[in-house]
Amino acid sequence: MKPLRLLALFIIPMGLIIAAVPQNKTKPYKLTADQLLGEANARTQYVAPEIVADMIVKKDPSFQLIDVRNQDEFEKFSLPGAINIPVSDLLSDKHTDILNQDIKMNIFYSNGTITANEAWMVTRQLSYKNNFVPEGGLNYWFDAILNPQKPASTSPDEEFAKYDFRLSAGKALGGGLTVQTNQNQSSASSKPALQSAPKKKKAAGGC
Amino acid sequence: MGPLSVNELISENTNLFLAFIIGIGFGFVLEQSGFSSSRKLAGVFYGYDTVVLKVFFTAAITAMLGLLFFSLFGWVDLNLVYVNPTYLTSAIIGGMIMGVGFIIGGYCPGTSFCGVSIGKIDAFVFIGGLFLGVLIFGLGYNIWDGMYLAKFLGSPKISTTLGLSDGVFAFLLIIIALVMFRVAEWAEKKFPREQY
Amino acid sequence: MVNSKESKKTKYLNPYVGGVLLGIVLLAANFVSGRGLGASGAIKSVVVTSMTTIAPSASEKSGFIKEFTASHSGNPMKTWLVFEMLGVLVGGFFSGVLAGRVKLKVEHSPKITSRKRLFLALTGGVLFGFGSQLGRGCTSGSALSGMAVLSLGGFITMMAIFGTAYAFAYLFRKNWI
Predict the structure, then answer these.
(1) Distance from CA of A13 to the nearest CA of C (A)
(2) Which residue among A40, C64, C92, C160 is least packed, with the fewest CB closer than 10 Å?
(3) Is the pTM of this model over 0.90?
């Protein structure tokens, strides 16, 4: 009986400990300060607003727009298909599945770039992948995409090409601030359901 | 940090090599505990040798506790560890057929390899039978694939199904296992057999 | 085979110690590879390889083969389980040598013949092989490893295996005791 007594003596307290301790749900891996600073300096998170516009127009499924401003501002105006996760709410459990995946690009935007960058920093620290910030934020978006300035006649061709693209993208996206009120209603009613993306690669097993 | 292979901290080939090493450990412990003997294995069903019960449940709770503690210390991400899926119909029927196979053959695949490694001819024949059994399954797959794929419930955990936390369930299982060990020891005293 | 000679005591590990050690091996498998131990899958690899070698065109149409290749690309023998089972052979042999148990023989109850024992082993093997495919694992893969990760399916299969074996134990008692 002695080995059994010994086993029980050791294993019961361990069982009690594990039963009492709350389940660990945090991801262990994090970036170091150096790594984060390096990435911030390299400005790798920036993406040109034209690219974002293009993806919206083409209904590209590989990204999700995340508006990190507060709810009021989101309801006044938001980019089509965007979901609202105010930066203060970023760490809450209910958004973990949406943010922590490497299937869709997370594109954080705000009015300028400060708040969006805050979101980027936080999620990067948590080692989430695929996080981006459109250059210039919404302010630049209005100017560049929705109300593009016709380039001077002496500008190079690429400027014109950019202008044409922005014009058509802007039209496709409802262009101009005047259309804002309509967009308001539609964006309120057509807020996409927050789905959780599938988890990344797991081990195979069985048999 | 863990699982190492899934977090790509080791290459696929290293993973396979470590599988070999882990297998050596597996085979060694099994044989040392007597699982190379079909008579010892069958003993649990007659009470004269409960080594299967003791080793099996001790191993299960050790590994279970180990994983939970590792997760607690942040050494392993339990979300990345494989949890066997639940296909209700085939889990039960397959288990029943295996149960009959176990009581007739006295081995299971893992222990039969163990038996072969020390020269047991009946273990070798058992493995031959395994090959045939799997082959029959494969050839007639269209006949039973309906049953095979029925009632897929995903990969639920027992603790979630019972509405308990993993830790609480582990503790309950420990208590149940210890009680079973006590009963097993009583049974061995009651149904003694000569050593073999 | 004279029983009195065979019944000299051979030394086995204390079962609880063995259990803890086995648990540590299982823990290592989960830590390193994110999966538990297993055995029947290695047999499946061999069967798949045989089927595709002997009848490649028919195998292409087989639902069984398709199910296998859906989750395993590349050579069906280059799998975790095959390597593991090779290790089991080595480990078991090593242990047997250490304990002086390596001997070519048919182990059976004195109440039945060797031939009967071999017949029973074959029958049991066929049943177990078939059942392991339905159950998506055997006692190592489904029951033991499943329990360690708290899998419901593993637990159910384990109950089915042991419950059925107990239920049929009386019927087959003459082969063992």
Answers:
(1) 16
(2) A40
(3) no
